């Protein structure tokens, strides 16, 4: 969630600052939904936000601004959550999206970026359209990540049955290479690895399949407040129709659909960057035009 800020509202509400232990029942309202739950006695704004995310995270557009409001008995309506608010008695709160949507700028810097390489495995080779080309582009991205010191997280979908990552892709220096059965890459081990990297803001995501593992990973990542860049020339599916509609859907959610060259040049940002020449050489070794980008 980009920003959900407590307002400075006159007047109190259904709860007031206080001490004590145990938990307090709270009704959490969002859109047309209302779910009873509880928070620890004395919980403040941050814990309320965490509870909203746990209850409604899959329905909250993380690129919107929100305000948390409290139902005030004295006014018989909701008011912006007062500053310093703590829960000490039963109450009702709601999360309200503001009308103005935050623009996703898509700025990338090596220090705040992680690369996700998703399920580039041997058994997918004959089934995925343009698989040879996305291998080539994916390898170039991983070379760029090594040059720029960007952490790389790799998953393999059920490798016992689908094989390991293809030999052409060099995983040297990857922070994590993890088998999975879940379609999304967002596993507990991946979340723990992300937590170890200070200042992560953006994920560059590529691999297969666009409409399954890539899509589900991207949606989970933005649900956790990260900005996601999908590399269109390094992601594919068995069906170009599935791929096209997945990319269109993801772009509408605020995910950035881009290209490998745009990613690499954005990360160096300046001809005077000490790694520019090496990145430029990677770009010059581009894969032949495959038609992938004409099907975005």
TrEMBL record:
Belongs to the isochorismatase family. It comes from the Eukaryota. It holds the Pfam family Isochorismatase. This is Isochorismatase domain-containing protein 1. PANTHER family: HYDROLASE, ISOCHORISMATASE DOMAIN-CONTAINING PROTEIN 1. Residues 113-261 form the Isochorismatase-like domain. Signal peptide: none annotated.
